[in-house]
Amino acid sequence: xxxxxxxLPLSDEVAETLSGTKxxxxxxxxxxxACDEVRWNDMIVGAALLSxxxxxxxxxxxxxxxxATEITN
Length: 73
Description:
The chain is 71% helix and 0% strand. By secondary structure, it is mostly helical. The protein has one domain (2-72). Helix 3 packs antiparallel against helix 4.
C-alpha cells in the first residue's frame, strides 16, 4: 500500500494516515470511514471529537455523496 501511496501526489502525513499510521489526520479519516459505512455512533463520536456539529456533518455528508455521484456518472 505504501508503494502505491508514494506514487500519488499526497503529503507525507496523508500517505502515512492512509497507510495506518496514527497522525493528526487520523480522526478525520476515521470519521469519513464511519460516514461511508453509516456507523451512526462512530459518526457522532467522531464529529464531537472534531467539534463538528450535526448539521455541519450532515451538510458535508450530503456534499460528499453528491460529489461521488457526479464523478461516477
